[in-house]
Amino acid sequence: QEEEGDDEIAMLSRVFNQMTKQLKTQRDSLVETNRYTEQRRRLFDSVLTGVTTGVIGLNAKGRVEFINSAAARLLNVDTELPDGASLKDLVPEFAYLFNELAEGNSVVAQEDVQLTRAGTGENLLVRIATRHNDRGLLEGYVVTFDDVTDLVSAQRMAAWGDVARRIAHEIKNPLTPVQLSAERLRRKFSKVPGIDVDALEQYTEVIIRQTSDLRRIVDEFSKFARIPEPERRQQ
Asked: How far is residue 56's CA from residue 51's CA, in Å, rounded to a whole number?
């Protein structure tokens, strides 16, 4: 309670109450800021936990500061890493990409990386970006990566399908002229005096039959190049 009057006690009382109000205001502001920061941290953790993209945070020296569950799963490591673990220690396959970024002038480095863990090969699309503070000073790096193994396999299958289609086309193209030529030879020379008609029939029949067999084989081979029909299901 403030003392009334102009004496020292009254003035001290008013100053004390004013300081108390200021402290309460500052305390409420700090509590609100802390609550907001904690809320943002939980949201950040929730996002990192929920995404399927691997995320690794590094400090300016390339030491691991955090790693999300997707990264731990893709790399087959524990989310609880020893203090001071470097990216080179954690994923040697990423080291050259990190060195390229750290020693160059760019702010982003990206490349496909083949990774083998527990006998299983994976193709990862890796991206490393720098992060800076408000003054433009380097704070660290953010490593993100996705498993693109299925995409790479699909691309390879598409490439092989294209090769199969071209091969089938090149083989099948001359088959019809060959067969037609054999049939014309049989018709033309079967009426020529002195020709062994049975032998001519046998030879041309072999050509025609083998041509048909080869066409069937090519048709089967070309199926490899066709995109499967989609399966429609009622949802």
From this structure: 13
